[in-house]
Design brief:
This protein has 160 residues and is of the alpha+beta class. The protein has a single domain, classed as 3-Layer(aba) Sandwich (Trna Endonuclease, Chain: A, domain 1). The chain is 14% helix and 28% strand. It is built from two helices and nine strands. The strands form three sheets. It has a five-stranded mixed sheet with strand order 1-2-3-7-8. The C terminus is likely disordered.
């Protein structure tokens, strides 16, 4: 496991980049560190370009915390949908990548994705991590958690 924050971030970016390529997308790395995103993805479905901010986390094996902000000793930045399309989180515990579209995370500082069912059996308002394993669907879909948010489903429901 990497010890330094920079090393963790670099590992997260490398794992997400490899996972996106495994899914068949093309990936570009922007030059410099002035953009609020780490990767640019060319979608395999239609060639659309989308911006991806990558996060590294270590879950407790039950819940993956998806941070929608960056903090340093000097600056705290909360991302918004006008600058980033997806938050991709690499979880070192499960060694999986999770992709949350801006329509779900916009307005939040952090989201929880459940790896296992809740202890009390709650299903409403629960976001299951398995729904976010692929960069799939549109940025504008119905939230599978049942929160009523305008978010995506991991499949296309657009009529032809």
């Amino acid at each position: 496991m990497p010890a330094k924050t920079t090393e963790k971030g670099e590992l997260g970016e490398a794992m997400v980049l490899a996972d996106l390529m495994r899914q068949g997308h093309e990936v570009a790395i922007p030059f410099g560190h002035n953009q609020p995103y780490d990767l640019i993805v060319t979608r395999k479905e239609d060639g659309r370009l989308e911006r991806v901010q990558v996060k590294y986390t270590e879950s407790d094996g039950k819940v993956v915390q998806v941070r929608v902000e960056s903090t340093s000793a000097w600056v705290r930045h909360k991302y918004h949908r006008g600058e980033v399309d997806w938050i991709a989180t690499y979880d070192a515990t499960t060694q999986l990548c999770f992709y949350v579209p801006s329509s779900i995370w916009d307005g939040h500082a952090r989201l929880s994705l459940r790896l296992v069912p809740t202890a009390n059996g709650q299903a409403k308002l629960v976001r299951h991590a398995s729904d976010f394993l692929e960069l799939a669907g549109s940025l504008e879909r119905i939230d599978p958690s049942g929160t009523g948010a305008n978010a995506y489903l991991p499949f296309d429901t657009t009529p032809e």
